[in-house]
Design brief:
Main location: membrane
Family: Belongs to the TonB-dependent receptor family.
CATH superfamily: TonB-dependent receptor, beta-barrel domain
Number of domains: 1
Oligomer: single chain
CATH topology: Maltoporin, Chain A
Number of strands: 35
Domain TonB-dependent receptor-like beta-barrel: 214-640
Membrane topology: Multi-pass membrane protein
CATH architecture: Beta Barrel
Radius of gyration: 25 Å
GO molecular function: siderophore uptake transmembrane transporter activity
Number of helices: 5
CATH class: Mainly Beta
Strand content: over 45%
């Protein structure tokens, strides 16, 4: 509480000071070339030079999703590794490049984990989310922090901002969700207007679930051998999230905001299912505390010159306990803490009517500590600098960028990893060949790399100091077409990953080491379509569809048996569909997630095959007006077919379940 109080005091003092410094009489109208406020969601997807997908708040409400990971499964080209249940770990891979190549941003600034490099998106609920976007390659908006240009793909989570009607000073919602397997999920969101220039948001949420869901364990091929009904053990979860934001519009030329985020979680880590010994379930526990505060300030010096400053502090605490480990201590208890300080400055110059340039420079300092004896306690100083250009006209949009990255490694114990420097490029273009037809052709090339994580480099008995960064090269050619009632996009792509970091056993199965031994070639096709149909004057039908074909094969060594085999947990065929019927008295939603077969091992033999699956869900919702306020009621049936499918081998997902939600909006 003392830390929160000091932070608010600092923020309020800074805002008042900046307001006095920049407040001035400025014309009410200001044209910002990088921001299109009135543009429709479908128009942004069609015009983009790189594949760009959006799930707006309305779409999110219709997806039967409790967590962000449930919604992201509807993006084409995305593979979510899900270990089952609310508390199971969930990571994202886009177009087969791996989770470490996917940047996760929250309100424009990247969410990081220097320990593992992978963000567990299961910790993000959808209760306070306004929209989620996915970019392959880079964003067409070049007025961004330099770090935003560093990833092969990016998911940006945008939380709700204050919105007020007429003269209201306060609005928000109170909600509670409940359902199968002991789910209890109350939440509160509110927006407060202090003055015409300053407003704030507050959001809190608690998630409790026992997670003890039934599943069928087959002793042999499903349907051809004996089976038993078991219950998933050690899958409980207790999550608490608290957020607040302060927003200031000092003048038409200057604005700022600051966000404070706190999340804590305790959960069981359910183990793999074991034949004939289901009582020996995992007792591993995981505690996760995350706190960050981030600030953004933007000022328009003129219609041609804009500046922005971003800053962030992140603190992470992770405790892992395995009380059944057969070792000298009789358990494994690891505690890791990490700290990160980040700063960024950017400038955008609109040189002419059609062309803009941007410069951005970031610096990040991160470190990690552990209770393990002789732990290296590494630190990393990273700088990113980028120069970017953008051309915009009615028929052509093009962007390019040049990013320079440099790192400086240090440790408290032992030898540090090598310092790294890298220059990467990006080029993309979208062309509209016919003036009266919203048909576009687009192409892009993007080069990126990901640094080895602290686990890769320094984890005891595993880390390897001489690891080279993974590099990724992306090529894309696509077409888009849009009309007032729908849109369709089709993209073909080729990706190459070099120096892929892979864990290999060294000596025995309890001692592993990280090596640069991987090369992967990925060829694929992404298709997405959406249409809005007026059935009658009082009924609308929204249809959405996505499909992905992905041939992601190992090209490491032609003399090995895994040569030209599909990489693990990457299905060749996958997709999703959704339908929403809006009626005056009821809204009916249907969603489908499906995936073809995958392999749990780099060698694609029958014993490592994971069967494909389909997941059908439906929901019914109703809005009841109560004066100026409203009450939202919804009921959902998830996994309608009661299919205990697996995304990760031996980690069954829940079967049929039910969920209800009551929300009061004021």
């Amino acid at each position: 509480m003392k830390l929160l109080k000091l932070t608010f005091q600092f923020v309020f003092t800074a805002i008042v000071s900046i307001n006095n410094l920049f407040a001035q009489n400025i014309a009410d109208s200001l044209y910002l070339p990088e921001i299109v406020i009135t543009e429709k969601t479908a128009d942004r997807e069609i015009r983009s030079t790189t594949p760009f997908q959006i799930l707006s708040n309305d779409r999110l409400q219709a997806l039967n999703a409790l967590q962000l990971s449930d919604a992201i499964k509807h993006f084409s080209g995305v593979t979510v590794k899900d270990y089952g249940g609310i508390g199971g770990l969930k990571t994202i891979s886009v177009r087969g490049l791996g989770a470490s190549h996917t940047g996760i941003s929250y309100n424009g600034l990247e969410v990081t984990d220097v320990q593992s490099g992978q963000i567990d998106i299961g910790r993000f609920s959808l209760d306070n989310i306004e929209s989620v976007t996915l970019n392959n390659g880079q964003n067409d908006n070049i007025f961004l922090p330099a770090k935003a240009f560093a990833s092969a793909s990016g998911i940006n989570i945008n939380s709700k901002t204050p919105e007020f009607k007429n003269k209201e000073k306060l609005n928000g919602s109170l909600s509670v969700k409940g359902g199968s397997f002991g789910l209890f999920n109350p939440a509160m969101n509110s927006s407060i207007k202090f003055s015409d220039k300053i407003a704030a948001t507050f959001s809190s949420e608690l998630t409790l679930a026992k997670g003890k869901y039934p599943y069928t364990l087959y002793y042999g091929d499903a349907g051809n051998d004996s089976s038993s009904v078991e219950h998933r053990e050690n899958s409980d979860v207790k999550n608490f999230r608290l957020e607040t934001g302060l927003f200031a519009d000092f003048s038409p030329r200057s604005k700022a905001n600051i966000n404070i985020y706190y999340y804590q979680s305790e959960r069981g880590l359910p183990g793999a299912t074991i034949f004939y010994n289901t009582d020996s379930f995992s007792k591993q526990r995981l505690w996760d505390n995350t706190f960050f505060t981030q600030g953004h300030f933007e000022h328009s010096h003129s219609n041609k010159l804009l500046f922005q400053i971003n800053a962030k502090y992140n603190n992470g605490y992770l405790k892992y306990l395995d009380p059944t480990f057969l070792g000298g201590d009789g358990k494994i208890e690891d505690i890791f803490t990490q700290n990160e300080v980040y700063g960024s400055a950017s400038a955008l110059y609109r040189a002419f009517e059609n062309i803009s340039f941007s410069l951005s420079s970031d610096i990040t300092h991160a470190n990690m500590f552990s209770n393990r004896k002789s732990f290296a306690a590494p630190s990393r100083l990273t700088s990113h600098s980028v120069i970017a250009a953008k051309w915009v006209s009615e028929q052509i949009m093009a962007t390019s960028s040049l990013l320079y990255t440099q790192t400086f490694e240090s440790v408290n114990i032992g030898d540090p990893a090598s310092n790294r420097r890298k220059l990467t490029t990006h080029l993309s273009v979208s062309a509209k060949p016919f003036i009266d037809n919203n048909f576009r052709v687009r192409a892009f090339y993007n080069e990126s790399f990901r640094l080895p994580t602290f686990n890769d480099l320094y984890y005891p008995l595993v880390g390897f100091r001489d690891l080279q960064p993974e590099s990724a090269h992306q090529f894309n050619l696509g077409v888009t077409y849009g009309k007032s009632n729908g849109s369709i996009t089709l993209d073909a792509y080729h990706n190459r990953v070099n120096n892929k970091i892979i864990a290999y056993p060294s000596g025995n199965l309890h001692q592993w080491t990280m090596l640069n031994m991987g090369k992967v070639h990925i060829n694929g096709i992404d298709i997405s379509a959406e249409s809005n149909i007026n059935i009658t004057n009082i009924a609308d039908l929204l249809l959405g569809l996505s499909y992905t074909y992905q041939d992601a094969i190992d090209k490491t060594d032609r003399n090995k048996i895994t040569w030209n085999h599909q990489i693990p947990y990457t299905p060749k065929h996958s997709g999703s569909s959704r339908a929403l019927i809006n009626l005056p008295w009821l809204d009916i939603s249907y969603t489908l997630i499906w995936s073809g077969q995958r392999y749990s091992n780099a060698y694609n033999s029958k014993e490592f095959r994971v069967n494909g699956y389909t997941d059908h869900s439906i929901s019914l919702s109703k809005i009841i007006k109560a004066g100026k306020d409203s009450i939202n009621l919804s009921f959902e049936i998830l996994n309608l077919a009661n299919n205990n499918y697996e995304i990760i081998l031996n980690y069954p997902m829940p079967g049929r379940s039910y969920r209800w939600n009551i929300s009061y909006n004021f």
